[in-house]
């Protein structure tokens, strides 16, 4: 009888562990990375809107759509190039991404036009910021008029508003607007610099 109670007690824990192993990571999830051989590489990292995580020595790797075990193996394989023996890596899930309320779209479309390195339509998670959109567009080109970036937004009534942003100040951390949350259909216009601008 005691054995039956022990099995019934452990069953929910085993089920949760099985679900965690099958869980596919999403943008917004928070991961804990631990490398036993070098604790300076240990860190908490966010799965970015593009599905990547960024780590020292290896750069960016894809996390979204993969399991913890797959990310763990990838990190260990990439790091093994910097170690004499393959490192022991543990990847755990610290926090789940915020879940969307019912009826909210899973992604929004934002458009970056003009002097960006990779202009075009960008699919992003709701709540993504202006700075994240510019980063996904490859950053601004050397010919961008950083002090005259525009954010154009159309409201529910079809009225368009234009906001002027000083992206040079945003990059230096002295300007506001980089954390502006984007909505579906926003257009970021990056004009080219004039000759002596």
Structural class: alpha+beta
N-end to C-end Cα span? 83 Å
Shape label = globular
Reading the helices and strands in chain order gives HEEEEHEEEHEEHE
Strand order of the largest sheet: 7-6-10-8-9
Instruction: Determine the CATH superfamily of the largest domain.
Output: Outer membrane lipoprotein wza domain like
Please count the beta strands (DSSP E, at least 2 residues each).
Answer: 10
Q: What is the CA-based Rg, rounded?
A: 22 Å
What number is the mean pLDDT?
A: 83
Please indicate the percent range of residues in DSSP E strands (runs of 2 or more): 25-35%
The number of helical runs is: 4
Total domain units: 2
Stated plainly, the CATH topology of the largest domain is called: Outer membrane lipoprotein wza fold like
Largest pleated sheet: 5 strands, mixed
Please give the share of residues in helix. 10-25%
- CATH C-level of the largest domain: Alpha Beta
CATH architecture of the largest domain: Roll
Low-confidence stretches: 4-19
């Amino acid at each position: 009888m005691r054995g039956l109670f022990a099995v019934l007690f452990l069953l929910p824990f085993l089920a949760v562990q099985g679900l965690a192993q099958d869980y596919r990571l999403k943008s917004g999830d928070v991961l804990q990375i631990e490398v036993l051989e070098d604790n300076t590489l240990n860190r908490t990292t966010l799965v970015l809107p593009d599905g990547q995580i960024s780590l020292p020595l290896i750069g960016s790797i894809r996390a979204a759509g993969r399991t913890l075990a797959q990310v763990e193996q990838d990190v260990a394989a990439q790091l093994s190039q910097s170690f004499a023996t393959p490192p022991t890596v543990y990847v755990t899930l610290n926090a789940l991404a915020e879940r969307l309320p019912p009826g909210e779209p899973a992604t929004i479309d934002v458009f970056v036009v003009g002097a960006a390195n990779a202009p075009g339509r960008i699919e992003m998670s709701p709540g993504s910021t202006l700075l994240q959109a510019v980063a996904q567009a490859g950053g601004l080109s050397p010919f961008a008029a950083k002090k005259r970036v525009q954010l154009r937004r159309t409201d529910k009534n079809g009225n368009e508003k234009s906001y002027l942003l000083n992206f040079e100040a945003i990059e230096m951390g002295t300007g506001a607007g980089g954390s502006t949350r984007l909505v579906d259909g926003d257009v970021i216009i990056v004009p080219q610099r004039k000759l002596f601008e």
